[in-house]
Amino acid sequence: MFGVNHDLYFDNFGILGHNGIDYVDLYGTPILAAHDGQVTLISRDDPTRKNGNGIYIQGYDRENYIDTAYWHLSEITVTAGQKVKAGDVIGKMGNSGFVRPLPTPDNPQAGTHLHFGVRRIKILIPGVDTQIIPTDYKGFCDPTPFLYKGEKLPIRFNRDLFMGLGGDDVSHLQTCLKLEGFAKDYEPIGYFGNKTRRDVSLLQTKYGINPILGYCGTKTRKLLNEKYT
To answer: Which residue segments constitute the domains of the chain, with CATH numbers given?
Structure first.
């Protein structure tokens, strides 16, 4: 999920958390374009980079542009400037760049996965000027709301969550709050702060969960687990 593994994904450039979703499958699995658009950038594996072989596609999402990123590929089958349709094969899953576990001579395909990211770009002047919509993740935002179609998520809430706590389950809670129409002014970061408490209160009000304290206790966890897990 977006925003997890804060310690693993923090670096000197100020990237907090994990700015995409990782999909694990077999090495060489075809990777499909998530939307119509144009390939704006092809990045090749380099020892100084973490993303490995990657593709960036720009499309149009309502009033703004949207960029999608596909990293750690083993093969790229499109070129910069090429127009693609949703569902077109653009490359193959791999383990180039920074992955865990690291590949070894005995297991050269270790760490195989796709990192999928979404970045929103505001249109300032049509055809002339654009601006990346800022977030704590250099413009990248939680992809789940763009992809979610009512299916269950690979998460579960097993403990109460409240102010001051951190962890993967806090990130998952913040993603669910986005799916509920809240958490519009922050991205999942794995820390339960004032904004998360505010939005848990709104969630409890929406579903008539009392008391409304912004504390994700037994009743709220039951709701989230029944709806999303």
So the answer is: 21-141 (2.70.70.10), 168-228 (no CATH)
